[in-house]
Amino acid sequence: MPISKKLGPLAAACVLAGVLVAGLLYPVASGVGLVSNRAASAVENVSSELLNGTLPQVSTMTDAAGNPIALLFDQYRYEVGYNDISPDMVAAIISIEDRRFLEHDGVDWKGTIRAALKNSSSGEVQQGASTLDQQYIKNYQLLVLARTEADREAATETTPARKLREVRMALTMEQSLTEQAKRKGLSDAAAKQEAKKQIVTRYLNVVPFGNNAYGIEAASQVYFNKHAKDLTVEQAALLAGMVQSSSALNPYTNPQAALARRNTVLDTMIQNFPNRRDELTAAKAKPLGVVPNPNIPTQGCIGAGNNGFFCDYALQFLAANGISRDSVMRSGYIIKTTLDPDVQRSVERAVQTQADPHADGVASVMSAIRPGTTSHPVLAMASSRDYGLNQNADQTVQPQPFSLVGDGAGSVFKVFTTAAAMEQGLGTGSNIPVPSTLAVQGMGSSGGSNGCPADSYCVKNDGRYPASMSVSQALAQSPNTAFVKLLQQTGVKPTVDMAVRLGLRSYNTPGTSGDGDKSIAQYVKDGNFGSFTLGPFPVNGLELSNVAATLSSGGVWCPPNPIGSISTIKRDENSNAVPGPDGAPVLTTVPFNPPGCDRVVEQGLANTLANAMSFDDRGGGTSAAAAGSTGWNLPVSAKTGTTEAHRSAAFLGFTNNIAGSVYVYSDGPNPEGICTSPLRSCYDGNLYGGYEPARTWYSAVLPVANKFGPTSLPPQDPQYVSGNSRGRVPDVTGLTASDATARLQAAGFKVTQLEIDSPRPQGTVVFTAPSDSALPGSTITIYVSNGRQSAGGSNGPTQTTVQVPGVGPVVIDLPG
């Protein structure tokens, strides 16, 4: 070969080396070379990021006791400090990747020139000569800073420009870290050693090792199921060898290549540590020793089992309040949630006892919340469906417990009507009329079926009730006509607003009604639907539980909060966890400010309503049988509900310590009625809220009812028991119809009149409905005697039985 041809590659290599040196001193204009002033600025920006050294890490979600629920990550990586890495790992990686690491200042000039000469003479790239500093920079840009495909291409491009940028950043980084160490009073030599420890630690934390393992701690777990500090020399050598090409040297798919590379690493260590020759030679004879299958954890909520529903809700809550899913997946957070393991176990067991996870077309969901005036922590969340991706096994990842689903909570909505009426002046001690049937105009239409006028909404009771009942009795026995009548008097708008205020916040979300962009709340108010008090609209089970929590909290609404705290491990400059006085790592709190709490009804109203709801579990209460069958024997405020077609049913209950709801609904593609014992889809449903929903709640809460303190009812407020003075109904018994009408009208009420059989003087008032108190401006019905004793009536001196048209026999007290 002519001498000129032999010297050509050498000259080119020398020129390249000269350009690299010159490029470190002066930025070269882009038109003639490698890096512009703009690129130089970019180098400075990246150098700043490198010094900060933040890495994508695994965030761990735990329950309230600190037990892990889920691992959340984009890259499976745990950052560890220099002290938590095996010294053999440090020795192995330096030996194979950068043997002059402890001598150079970030760039191995000898190696760079040698590689340039070798590559130029061969006409292809055969040697790299990148130091650990440069490899760290390349990997940091690729795995941390690059967020787009263009970024990733720029981080890996094989151009002199990229090489120059890496060189400059490597020198800058090592110099900066050394200067930082000097400012702590270290000598030049000690400062350089400190900088080297930081760099090798950063490198081992960022580099990929294959099989989804990023960083040395994750790699140690994946391949050996141990911590990085516990690696043996042969294990360290295997991992050190894999960084060259984690795919080609995968010990599971190419064990022979991985073994050969491991032994090459051990040979380099023998050269560097001749005093360990015998030990390292013996290590070459050992097998790879990896675990049978890569120990790769499941990423995300899918790894949380049936806690996955709660996990999903927690992530949604974080995202809605400023901490994005992307941030969670990269930030190494410790997310301690409010999930109470005792309550969760009890809730999940009760739900899946009463509802078969594999029942076709039927799902049951329950959540439990701790009441309070500063926060409403979510204690538990469960579905009868298993959380998972296997639809053939009836699993689901749909947010069933915390989204609008089903046909509605039925008569549970009577609570909203009652609360709205109490706010307008109704007392819980008042009697309200209970007609056997009711047809109202201007409140929707029943479609003209079953004899109902086409322009009316008609409702009748399922069973027999007296002509009037106290509010407490009505809540426990749930006559439909009484509450539709009460809604008519109270108004649909304030009742819907009350439902939203107490907790059904998604009812204000546009588009939820199915009628264009209208929310459910707006749709109901626009239609003035009398059916609202019977709960025929989809509900969010978690929000329904929060209604219970709001009432149990004395009328204070807070968002159902799944987050207890968010923190990160505090680390020193060598990535070592900073220990606290007890030896445990010091945690740094991550700022997180969920929405605050609001008083939505007066405390006296909420407490008195809680007492009015406390008869459901006894006597003629709709959940008395369920309470008895589960052994429930504690004070409780509760309400059952069932939709007309039995396609969903609910139970809302709360004590002073735990609030929650159970919601059973048809979750198939074509909703059907639901039958009871066992829960199943059927054409003609017979499920009621007092059946499986109530049994689920009582059996779930009973084992943990006193975990947070004794169970009791709050004190009532006399104002809300008797109602305000404007709502008190004057006693007009014995007056003539005309005098009674005048007196009631003077008190601000409207009056209607019905004639009934009674031995009282003809034309005099026997009783009124309501009596005691009523909504100001509402209608009072006066029942006027026709002077005739009804057949079969009692002639006793203290009581009489009267026949009320449309109601039936009613026993009333007479003066003695």
From TrEMBL:
CDD domains: PASTA_pknB. It comes from the Bacteria. Signal peptide: none annotated. Residues 723-786 form the PASTA domain. GO terms for molecular function: penicillin binding; peptidoglycan glycosyltransferase activity; serine-type D-Ala-D-Ala carboxypeptidase activity. One of its GO terms (biological process) is proteolysis. The keyword Transport does not apply. Pfam families: PASTA (PF03793), Transgly (PF00912), Transpeptidase (PF00905). Keywords: Carboxypeptidase, Glycosyltransferase, Hydrolase, Multifunctional enzyme, Protease, Transferase. It catalyses: Preferential cleavage: (Ac)2-L-Lys-D-Ala-|-D-Ala. Also transpeptidation of peptidyl-alanyl moieties that are N-acyl substituents of D-alanine; [GlcNAc-(1->4)-Mur2Ac(oyl-L-Ala-gamma-D-Glu-L-Lys-D-Ala-D-Ala)](n)-di-trans,octa-cis-undecaprenyl diphosphate + beta-D-GlcNAc-(1->4)-Mur2Ac(oyl-L-Ala-gamma-D-Glu-L-Lys-D-Ala-D-Ala)-di-trans,octa-cis-undecaprenyl diphosphate = [GlcNAc-(1->4)-Mur2Ac(oyl-L-Ala-gamma-D-Glu-L-Lys-D-Ala-D-Ala)](n+1)-di-trans,octa-cis-undecaprenyl diphosphate + di-trans,octa-cis-undecaprenyl diphosphate + H(+). One of its GO terms (cellular component) is outer membrane-bounded periplasmic space. The keyword Transcription regulation does not apply. PANTHER family: BINDING PROTEIN TRANSPEPTIDASE, PUTATIVE-RELATED, PEPTIDOGLYCAN GLYCOSYLTRANSFERASE. This is Putative penicillin-binding protein. The lineage of its organism: Bacteria, Bacillati, Actinomycetota, Actinomycetes, Mycobacteriales.
